[in-house]
Amino acid sequence: MNKKLTYAGIAVLLLAVISGCGDKPTASPADAAGQDSSSVSSGAEGNAGNDSSANSTSAPQATSTPEPAATEAPVATEQPAAPEKQSQTIKVYYTDPQQTDLVAADVSVSFTDAKDKYTEAFKALQSSKNADQIPLWSKIELKSLEFTNGQIVLDIHKPDEAQLGAGGEALAISALSQTFFQFEEVKNIDVLVDGEQVESLMGHVDLVHPITRENNGL
Question: How far is CA 130 from CA 78, 93, 95, in A?
């Protein structure tokens, strides 16, 4: 009987001890894990924030380089076609070695327009391939030639060595007139010396301004 009471008393004491221990709150594993993960995440966020702020202050800012303005490609323009050269055989007048009369010769000239044709005709008056055909204008320089409304205006320079006698001067004017008046479109010729109208080309024969077909007997 006494042993039973003793065992019963021990059992009551054990239950009291056990119930006292059970009143203390204990953290569940899930709560502990949550606390650990939140602390870790907050720490990580803090570190990430520090890292991002550090990166934002240390990383150089990228600047955009403006692209050069596009230039338009040059547009090819068509070049006007060069005028075609023409050839014509004309009469050119020289004198004989004794300067007694005019001598005609056939000469081929090449040209692109009327002005060019008359310039080439004057050049033909300045030279000859035949020793029996003496050019009367060989030493005279042509400064300019213009053709307007049927009139040829020649501006020449006459050096001292181009001087001829009275007969040679008359033949020179006649040779010039007959060479140019073979062109039907030429109505008159005006010869200037260094840009001025002169009374005589070489001081022996009157120089008419302008020379016409009528006053030249053509």
Answer: 46, 12, 11
- Closest by Cα among 156, 151, 153 to 138: 156
The percent of residues in the chain predicted with pLDDT above 70, rounded, is 64
Q: Which residues of 28-42 are buried (b: 16+ CB within 10 A; e: fewer)?
A: eeeeeeeeeeeeeee
**Residue tagged 């004198």 (tokens):** 95
Handedness of CA 129, 133, 136, 142 (dihedral sign): negative
pLDDT in tens, 184-200: 999 999 999 999 999 99
Separation of alpha carbons 132 and 98, rounded Å: 10
Cβ atoms of 13 and 5 within 8 Å: the answer is no
Q: Which residue has the tokens 């033909």?
A: 124
What does the pLDDT look like over 68-87, one tens digit per residue? Answer: 556 666 666 777 777 789 99
Amino acid at 150: G
Reported confidence tier of residue 214, pLDDT bands at 50, 70, 90: confident
User: Is residue 38 over pLDDT 70?
Assistant: no
Q: Which residue has the tokens 């204008």?
A: 137
With beta carbons less than 8 A apart as the criterion, state whether 189 and 177 touch.
yes
DSSP 8-state symbol, 147:
E
User: d(Cα 156, Cα 122) in Å, to the nearest integer?
Assistant: 11
Burial class, 139, CB count within 10 angstroms (exposed 0-12 / middle 13-18 / buried 19+): middle
What mean pLDDT is reported for the chain?
80
